[in-house]
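[job 0417] fold request received: 3-isopropylmalate dehydratase small subunit
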Amino acid sequence: MDKFTTLTGIAAPMPLVNIDTDMIIPKQFLKTIQRSGLGVNLFDELRYDRDGNELPDFVLNQPAYRDAQILVAGDNFGCGSSREHAPWALLDFGIRCVISTSFADIFFNNCFKNGILPVVLPQDAVDALMEDARKGANARMTVDLENQTVTTSDGLSFAFEIDPFRKHCLLNGLDDIGLTMEKAPSIDSFETQMAQARPWV
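[job 0417] inference complete; emitting structure tokens
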């Protein structure tokens, strides 16, 4: 998992509320267990018409936001089913941070496990960030995980809270496997002791 330290990039405004995981990645794309390749189908039903043509009004189809790395979203982002494909699709598209007033719990947890930072801020802060995001590609937003701040292109800064353990994992690029591998010396020592104490096992 890639480390998340400081991200400065284009933020796409998506003020819709209750964006669920089926909207993020529709059910027909859940057959794969590969984490790559899902970005093209991110927000599929909002991005394309029935013939597969891009809908020009959708924010991520607009030239200013095709390389967005941050989403500023409406309330209750990631609600619905618990599919982990949702953060996979966001990450494969290039989204590393989603900012909202609230997230569904399972989606929120899955983001951390996949290297995406979900930032919870009060409505007035999200409104200010949404307005900054509407400036387009020339306005770069900065998310600083170490200092726990989001800063607009004009220098307006908002502090956010994050669980210290989750912060540690993101800063060091540790998913569940990475966390286990941190304990590799202790695991090896235990297995050696058990092999000596119980050679028949």
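[job 0417] notes: Helices lie at 21-24, 44-47, 85-93, 105-113, 123-133, 164-172, 176-182, 184-197. The longest strand covers residues 6-14.
[job 0417] exit 0
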